[in-house]
Amino acid sequence: MPQIAPYAFDGHVEAAAFLKDEPVFALSDGTIRFPAGGETAIEAHEGGLLAARLDSFAPRLLSGGEDGRVVQTTPDRQSAEIASAGRKWISSVAGGPGGVVGYAVGRTAYVKGAKGDVREFAHARTVEDVAFAPKGLRLATARYDGASLFFAGTDAKAQELDWKGAHTGVTFSPDGRFLVTIMQENALHGWRLDDGKHMRMTGYPGKVKSLSWSAKGKFLATSGAPAAILWPFTGKDGPMGKAPLELGTRGDTTVVAVACHPSDDVVAIGYADGMILAVRFSDAKEALLRRGGSGAARTLAWDAKGRFLAFGTENGEAGVIDIAG
């Protein structure tokens, strides 16, 4: 068994991440915890933390809370407010290039530029999630009946991608060619962005709550089934007409979190009973990383080199797994 450095917190772990080489955990109680080498607990939000996401463009953890604040936490264990919506709840956050930040408040998505300018993008219904394209300032929002695409630095009209139903999460493929949303029903939906062609990804027995792109963007790993479901995104049609990989199948529990390795074709899988496996794409070979616990393994994150895996559960159990240990 790999070695595990265990941590115990008082509440639900919303997100686990690494800031440079240091593990950090965002808790639903509004605190950001750095537990290694002498714990630092940062009171980032009053009333509760609603969203936390690692910025893919810069070494910072972004969070939004019930206090209407967007906060960035940096590797030096410092937090600072970088945007505010009064006392309105911040339901989603995302980092963009050059220090830009996007966030959702009710029916409006906001983009705050590096110079402090703020743009608003109004919607007819609640904005459920925001994400930036891998290159440039193109912002995607998940909304009721589809997704919207904005060029965040201009007043250009939004590109509307419609599909009936509630869409609660959104992600770009690493090459920027595809946009995928999580639906309230047990399904994903996608679009090929150059022509708007639809992609339906269905068959889940439960709701999808976790997504992770593989190192080269060839697969999108997802939760929501007794196995991790990996949709292939090679070729111009993405997953259409292709069967997904099903890895780490267990008949007695459900996959609730996935995290693809940063360089290898391996996925870490967290289950509702707290077990964590690492599974190789090519031959489905499994390695047990954690036997289980008293809460679901809701969040997983690799460090940049792919040696350490941080995890957090819904009841406050957390830790860092040394897979070489």
TrEMBL record:
Classification via Pfam families: ANAPC4_WD40 (PF12894)
Ranges of residues in domain Anaphase-promoting complex subunit 4-like WD40: 262-323
Annotated transmembrane regions: none
Stored InterPro entries: Apc4-like_WD40_dom, WD40/YVTN_repeat-like_dom_sf, WD40_rpt
Superkingdom of the organism of origin: Bacteria
Coiled coil feature spans: none
PANTHER family: TRANSCRIPTION INITIATION FACTOR TFIID, TRANSCRIPTION INITIATION FACTOR TFIID SUBUNIT 5
Protein name per the record: WD40 repeat protein
Organism of origin: Aureimonas phyllosphaerae
